[in-house]
Amino acid sequence: MSIIEKLENNERLSYEDAIKLYDLDLFVLAKYANKIREQKHGKKTYFNINRHINPTNVCKDVCQFCAYSASRKNPLQYTMTHEEILEVVRTSLKNDIKEVHIVSAHNPKTGLQWYMDVFKKIKENFPSIHVKALTAAEIHFLSTEYNLSYDQLIAMMIDHGIDSMPGGGAEIFDEKVRKRICGGKVTSDQWIQIHRTWHKAGKQSNATMLFGHIESRDNRIDHMIRLRDLQDETGGFNAFIPLVYQTKNNFLKIDAPLTGVEILKTYAIARIVLDNIPNIKAYWATSTVKLALIAQEFGSNDVDGTIEKESIQSAAGATSAKGVAVKEFVDLIKNTGFIPVERDSVYNELKTW
Ligand code: V47
């Protein structure tokens, strides 16, 4: 059966089928991706009102794509106190945030409790806030640094009030590429195992994929299929987030950034291949707001949140440092012909704007 026949029949695609998708015309992919998007979400585009906090940029690991970590390229080290972090949350509550998304570098100097206690303090002071925190990369770092199992760390995370896990640290699962871009940190199997353990504890998470550096199109498909396999097993992923690689201030010498067509094809292919992950997020901080909105016609149904302060992608050249105002999001989504729906962190609908 041809790939088009399989798409027409809504058949699940194998790796061998899926690697053929990039050869299709963008608008052919759009037709099938958008059909799935409309079946699942109609004309709704989800966003949330959130605040990103990156409490430290001191990092033991050196990822070749990272411009945020202070280890080599960025000499300006910082580590926030818990009181400073609480003050950020307090201030952002005035903007009606529902979520804090807290991701740190791998700082060997702070001690385990610095990582953990802040979540409990946030919950005690602001019980309504959803705490999305600790990537699998951080969990693996804490596990090796403090000789704790993933199970033990996940029990601590739940005990300290973490509600859901972000999808960071997945990068690209292909072992050869991973070794070149971030050898030394969490492996692909470990990343998968950490999310499996988190899901088996009854919790939800997201999954990312960093693309547009040295990986091949086939590596992207392999990455998606590994996530689909875990999702078949646990059902714990809410969203898949393809992160467009930002080229500045890091060690990977990639001169030509991805084209818009390649980015849109990747969103559309993700929507087609990941038949069991409900949401495909076009994270505006890496795609730009304009392309994230266009991506709504190519299978995506989410643009992420208002963020307020973005430090990781903007360090590598993205224009995302200051976030986006709610009104701007809402107007842009409406003007694109979609329905802006504010969601919480695990995709319960809060308000149709
Ligand atoms: O894993 C680092 C990426 C990620 C670059 O779960 C870069 O809702 C592009 O995971 N170009 C962290 N990306 C951010 C993240 C995330 C973001 C928004 C929402 C969610 C969610 C998760 O940032 C890292 C890494 O892949 N990153 N450097 C760069 N140069």
What is the helix/strand order?
A: HHHEEHEHEHHEHHEHEHEHHEHHEE
Q: Span between N and C termini?
A: 44 Å
Unreliable spans: none
Treating each run of at least 4 consecutive H or I residues as one helix, how many helices? 15
CATH class: Alpha Beta
Classification by helices and strands: alpha/beta
Bound ligands, each once = ligand V47
**Anisotropy-based shape:** globular
CATH fold-level assignment: TIM Barrel
Integer-rounded radius of gyration: 19 Å
Query: What's the CATH superfamily, by name?
Result: Aldolase class I
The share of residues in extended strands comes to 5-15%
Helix content: 40-55%
How many domain modules? 1
Strand order in space, largest sheet: 9-1-10-11
Total number of β-strand segments? 11
Characterize the largest beta sheet: strand count, sense, and whether it forms a barrel.
4 strands, mixed
Mean pLDDT: 95
Q: Secondary structure elements and their pairing?
A:
Layout: H1 3-8, H2 15-18, H3 26-41, E1 44-48, E2 50-53, H4 82-93, E3 99-102, H5 112-125, E4 130-133, H6 136-145, H7 150-159, E5 164-165, H8 175-182, H9 188-200, E6 204-211, H10 217-234, E7 237-244, H11 260-273, E8 279-280, H12 284-287, H13 289-294, E9 302-305, H14 312-315, H15 326-335, E10 339-343, E11 349-352
Parallel strand pairs: 1-9, 1-10, 2-3, 3-4, 5-6, 6-7, 7-8
Antiparallel strand pairs: 10-11
Helix pairs in contact: 3-11, 4-5, 6-9, 9-10
